[in-house]
Amino acid sequence: MLNNTHVNQPPLVEGQRVEFKRQLTDGLEKEVVAFLNAHDGGLIYIGIDDAGQALSLDKLDQLQLQIKDRIKQNISPSTMGLFDVLIERYQDKSIIKIVVARGSEQPYYLRKAGMSPKGCFIRIGSAAEPMPQRMIETLFATRTRNSIGNMRSRNQDLHFEQLKIYYQERDLPLNEQFARNLELLTTEGDFNYAAYLLADDNGMSIKVAKYAGLDRVDLIENEEYGYCCLIKATKAVLEKLKVENKTLATITDSTRNETKLLNPIALREAVINAIIHNAYSREVPPKFELFADRLEITSAGGLPQGFSQDEFFMGYSVPQNKELMRVFRDVDLVEQLGSGIPRILQSYSKDAFYFTDNFTRLVLPFSQTLEATGQATGQATGQATGQAETLLLYCVEPRTTKEMMTHLEVSHREHFRDSLLIPLLDSGQLKMTLPDKPKSPKQRYVTVKQTDDNHD
User: Fold this and answer.
1) Record's Pfam families (predicted)?
2) 3-state helix/strand/coil string of the chain
């Protein structure tokens, strides 16, 4: 399914990640292959000359379909879920924009030329150059083998009535060849793990937990959404969190200001991003946890190999499950590649993201209107007092921030700092071991009363 957007952009410059073409030419697939094999993908604009001037294009809808078919049919391995073809307004003219993500099954190559320097290309500067044979062999030897597209489903008796309904709602009825067309089969012709996740019945369940306070001690609700088509489970999680995302108000003498606990656009993007990029090959589902002051979203899998945090935050797209990405876009749950993280960052800072080798966690703090603050305080004051007492006992010996958070089983660093650490420092109950170097990596915190007793 193709998406159209109509936006005015700042001046574009051709370079490492951007390619201009006056019109659709025979060299399109070569450029796409180069970006698929690149570190962070790229953008191809059709309808812009080398000087950066937009040109008029005819029959844009037909051109979109032609580009989609050529990329799909003429490049291997499969590119499904790795590109978008869009219409955009630039310099008051309509042009074609092709968004290409870095592929996870490199090297990609022109099907007619095979996996050789004549078929494999890589982006060097602003040009697509033949890939050396040694690089081709190295990439092929390390190609990802544990993708959900290559994993055989443990259950081969799968049914897809729910998936067919979602496609029918988008006026995209599935025919008898849908499993092959949507890449739900292994090379041997068996249902793969992507098919298992999209089937009517499976063993995957997404948990939404709710706690009364600021940690995981007092669980008051634990719902599971799953054992069904992943699309259905995703919609159920979205609906649940929409209900939990209450409207709060601040009333002044003249106005009533309303706001949601969480930004609705960022919330939707965060939920879908966690579900679609989860490392299902580890058979660990994403998890959603509501606390008195925040929502924590945890998904399996860290950053892709060789991918930096800066590239992640810049919106470069590396789909972890391209089969799921394709289906989610078809049913209109995903708009276009690389759009999720920038939308989240419009409302929340980069500090909301936490990465480990095996997991990614996003912590979204609730909005702090007057009523919101009162609500959170009412639920958590007693607990915060208990945490402070626990912390003072623990800090008889000097402790790092990480040690204290681990001891209290809290993961939200900003909340820990603002609600516990700073108040204890300000009250004189806790002090720094290096007061002249507050940001030193060797900084420790120790209970003041206990220290004074030791000197007596």
Assistant:
1) Fic-like_C, HATPase_c_4, SLFN_AlbA_2
2) CCCCCCCCCCCCCCECCEEEECCCCCCHHHHHHHHHCCCCCEEEEECECCCCCECCCCCHHHHHHHHHHHHHHHEECCCCCCEEEEEEEECCEEEEEEEECCCCCCCCEECCCCCCCCCCEEEECCEEEECCHHHHHHHHHCCCCCCCCCCECCCCCCCCHHHHHHHHHCCCCCCCCHHHHCCCECCCCCEEHHHHHHCCCCCCEEEEEEECCCCCCCEEEEEEEECCCHHHHHHHHHHHHHHHCCEEEEECCCCEEEEECCCHHHHHHHHHHHHHCCCHHHCCCCEEEECCCEEEEEEECCCCCCCCHHHHHCCCCCCCCHHHHHHHHHCCCCCCCCCHHHHHHCCCCHHHEEECCCEEEEEEECCCCHHHHHHHHHHHHHHHHHHHHHHHHHCCCCECHHHHHHHHCCCCHHHHHHHHHHHHHHCCCEEECCCCCCCCCCCCEEEHHHHHHHHC
Q: What is the reported pLDDT for 410? A: 76
Domains present along the chain, CATH in parentheses: 18-142 (3.30.950.30), 203-365 (3.30.565.60), 370-447 (1.10.10)
Task: Examine the pLDDT at 324 and tell me if it is beyond 90.
Answer: yes
Using a cut of 0.85, tell me whether the model's pTM lies above it. Answer: no
At 107-137, the pLDDT tens digits run: 999 999 998 999 999 999 889 999 999 898 8
